[in-house]
Structures are given as C-alpha cells and as structure tokens.
Specification:
By secondary structure, this protein is mainly alpha-helical. Helices cover 65% and strands 0% of the residues. The protein is built from 6 helices and no strands. It is elongated, with a radius of gyration of 44 Å. The N and C termini lie far apart (119 Å).
C-alpha cells in the first residue's frame, strides 16, 4: 500500500520520520551500502515493535487478552498503519541494496568476460612471423632448409670396418 509522505509524517515521531525519510527517492542514493544495512536493521526493529503493539490491540478488541498498558489508548489501526510505513521503507531499502549488489556483480562479470575475451584473442591470433628478405636488398643466397648433421671423421668408416672384423672372426672359427 502506497502512503503519502505527509501521512507518514503525521503517523511518526521526528526521529522515526528521519529514518524513513532517508529511504525515499533522492536521499536513498546518497547513502552507502553499510549505512543502508544499518537503516535496514533499525527499520526491522521499529516494524517488529509496531507489529507487537498491533497484535496486542487486536487481541484486546476480541477479548482474548488483557490490556498490556494504560498509556497506549486507541484501536489497533494506528500501530497497523505505522507498521505499514516501516514495511514500505524496508522494501525500498531492500530493493536498493539488491540493486547495488546486482550492479556490483554485473561489473565484476563484465570484467571477467573482458579478461576471457582477451585470453581467447591472444590464443586465436598467434604472433606474425618475420617478413624475411625484401626485394630492395638485392640478391642473396638462401640458406639451405635441410638439416645439417656433423659426423665425426673417425666414425665415417667404422661401420664397414666393424662388419669386416666380425666376418673375419667367423672365418677364423672354421
């Protein structure tokens, strides 16, 4: 139920109205999240107090319970309306906290997505190879692409010599 600010002011005391006024449109955006969480706790306490008074007055009206105090005259309607004011303020503060949490989560998600995209692009496009020789430098012999193997000179005839020695040993046995 939407309640006009003038009606809220008529229902609440000065200190209570200051708390509730901080939950309305322009003022709620100036508070940081920690202030909003402390206001949320204070509003819950006020709502719970009014809920208890309202329930007591309704029990009194039905004849189920005795009056709890002589200083609180009237019907259960007044504390019920005050409770509704606190409930609507609670909803505003809760929505604002949730909105800020979503905004922070979205900013973090965008940052993660940009980082992932940068990693993917880095893997997708490898570094370009060097351009090599260009025409203006003139003719140049191209180095051979074949792998060059260096065999020590002592190894060059050793295989065939080993075969000869093995054959000579077999011939000497017979």
């Amino acid at each position: 139920m939407s309640v006009p600010c003038k009606f809220e002011r008529s229902l609440l005391g000065h200190d209570e109205y200051e708390i509730v006024a901080g939950t309305h449109h322009p003022a709620i955006y100036d508070a940081d999240v920690e202030q909003l969480r402390s206001v949320l706790k204070r509003l819950r306490d006020l709502r719970d107090k009014e809920r208890t008074l309202s329930r007591g007055k309704r029990r009194e009206a039905r004849g189920k319970g005795a009056a709890r105090g002589a200083t609180f005259p009237g019907t259960a309607e007044h504390p019920y309306q005050r409770k509704q004011v606190f409930v609507s303020a609670l909803k505003r503060v809760g929505k604002e906290i949730a909105r800020r949490d979503q905004l922070a989560a979205r900013a973090a998600q965008v940052e993660f997505a940009q980082h992932a995209l940068a990693l993917r692009r880095a893997a997708q496009f490898p570094a370009r190879p060097a351009a090599g020789y260009t025409a203006h430098e003139g003719m140049r012999s191209l180095p051979s692409q074949r792998r060059r193997t260096k065999v020590p000179p002592a190894k060059i005839g050793s295989v065939s010599q080993a075969t000869r020695n093995a054959q000579a040993r077999r011939d000497a046995r017979n």
